[in-house]
Amino acid sequence: MSRLPKRNLEDLSAEQKVVFDYIVANRAVKPTGGHIGGPFDPWLGNPDMCRRLVELAGMFRFNSMVDRRYIELTILTTGAHWKAQFEWFAHEPMARKAGVPDAVIEAIRSGETPDFVEDADRACWRMVSELHRTKELTQDSYDAAIAHFGAAGVAEIIALAGFYSMVSMTLNAFDVDLPAGATPPFDK
Hints:
By secondary structure, this protein is mainly α. It is globular. Helix 1 packs parallel to helix 3, helix 4 (68-82) packs parallel to helix 7 (119-134) and helix 7 (119-134) packs across helix 8. It is built from eight helices and no strands. 64% of the residues lie in helices and 0% in strands. 31% of the residues are buried.
């Protein structure tokens, strides 16, 4: 059960309502009253912060220089690290649609090292999972990532992993509910 009480639209301040409307207009969300879901409800407590975070998320979704496959691979790797139920629920189908193989998705979910076919998949996962696990990046992992994504792409993937760590922490801290009937991907 979520730790954040659901709000009605009339509970929102004028500034919150502006940001709420912006999120609804620019994301595939169907609000229930003043409730949006995901990390948006906790973030909406500070409308300025929420707007800025939603804009950053939009940059990653629509203006990334990194292919969608690696964005979703990064998000799944980060969500699994944090065991963020809602994050995984939301992004597993997106990863599949972006071309991440089912076997790789399942290995990441279960905490195993995936058996990669694509070298770029391996380089992305290795960099992100290594940073989460060890807080550092070996030269070999760095070199492999640079070879596939270039310095700007590596910087973007790292920023994405950091952003989705914040998203995952928000979801976990506020115990954001999965939609009714959804099966949690991780044991608690």
